[in-house]
Design goal:
With 332 residues, the protein is mainly beta. The chain has helices spanning 2-23, 122-128, 137-140, and strands spanning 31-47, 54-69, 73-83, 93-105, 109-117, 147-156, 161-168, 183-190, 196-205, 217-227, 231-241, 251-263, 266-277, 287-297, 302-313, 321-331. The protein has a 16-stranded antiparallel β-barrel with strand order 1-2-3-4-5-6-7-8-9-10-11-12-13-14-15-16.
């Protein structure tokens, strides 16, 4: 029944867009766009047990193109080149298509289809504003993926209130659709005034049909952020229930981040994350993260950020990781 409902919803959205296409048939055909190039790199040095981990690193490069077609249509194709995490492999770099989608939008409604960026935690990530240092909480600790194959729709009831819905494969942009499970999500975003933003999100990830013992995985997230021209403060609380379809394998965590402008183009910032698991089933991977630093915007393309990071493990396994970094973010 759920599959039939989602099919009917998808068909309805496509019909809505098709109607707009018919209305736009007489518009002149124009195509414009711009290239995308973003590079994350750093120099880092470890302390204590990590003292031998130091050097220069190219963390990630995004290459792509964003285009506009007519008055209501746009799209984006982005290739993501990152570091390889394959144990024993000689591969230094590995690449994926991160985005490849078409977007329809008018004053109130937006529909993205294809390999899309997700809204699960994008608002938090934009508010945090330092993806080149670290992803926002949900993406950093694998509560969800930042992109996936599927549909995303958003309706703005006003400048202050919007609702969004997602139907995706659920496996992220690095994997094929290997099972028949789907992930369905919805979020509400409320902006009571120009300084404050509030968001709540929840989703359900189906158990694959070949798994007869697992439980559906659910994610729930709450976020509040306040910002003016000088100072910003954001806080979020996240839950992942039945991770990987295992009953009572629940994760939860909080993230708080703030920054303050101290001069033109220069800010100081700090962030604290806490990740924990129900009944300590994942104690070895849980703990606290602290990051603090100074961000210097050299110009509109280049950002240089000296910062300090410490991961403090929840158990006594001696897995504390303390590093000093100098990060560079270049984009056009």
């Amino acid at each position: 029944m759920k599959q039939i409902s989602m099919f009917m919803l998808s068909l309805y959205l496509v019909c809505c867009v098709a109607g707009q296409l018919t209305a736009a048939e007489n518009e002149p055909e124009t195509l414009s766009g711009k290239p995308i190039m973003t590079v994350f790199s750093n120099y880092h040095a470890g302390f204590g047990t990590q003292k031998d981990d130091r050097g220069f690193e190219l963390e990630r490069a995004y290459l792509g193109y964003a285009f506009d077609y007519g008055s209501n249509f746009s799209g984006k194709v982005v290739y993501d080149i990152g570091t390889s995490k394959l144990k024993g492999s000689e591969l230094e770099r590995i690449g994926y298509v991160k985005n490849a989608y078409i977007s329809y939008h008018n004053e109130k409604f937006t529909l993205n289809a294809g390999l899309i960026s997700l809204e699960q935690a994008n608002i938090q990530e934009k508010f945090w504003g330092r993806r080149y240092l670290m992803q926002s909480f949900q993406y950093e600790y694998k509560f969800g993926s930042s992109a996936d194959m599927g549909l995303w729709a958003k309706y703005n009831f006003s400048d202050n209130f919007a609702i969004d819905a997602t139907c995706i494969n659920g496996e992220g942009y690095k994997k094929l659709n290997a099972d028949k499970g789907m992930r369905y999500g919805a979020g509400l975003t409320f902006k009571p005034n120009k300084n404050l933003i509030l968001r709540v999100y929840a989703d359900n990830y189906d158990v694959p049909e070949q798994d007869t013992t697992g439980k559906s995985q659910n994610a729930i997230a709450f976020f509040a952020g306040w910002k003016n021209d000088i100072f910003s403060l954001g806080a979020e609380y996240n839950m992942l229930i039945n991770k990987s379809y295992v009953e009572d394998h629940d994760l939860n965590g909080a993230s708080v981040y703030a920054d303050a402008k101290i001069a033109k183009g220069t800010s100081v910032f700090a962030r604290w994350d806490n990740l924990s698991s129900k009944d300590d089933w994942s104690e070895s991977s849980c703990g606290n993260l602290i990051i603090a630093g100074i961000e210097w915007k050299v110009n509109k393309h280049l950002v240089v950020t000296p910062n300090f990071r410490a991961w403090l493990s929840q158990n006594d396994s001696g897995t504390e990781k303390i590093f000093a970094y100098v990060n560079l973010h270049f984009s056009i």
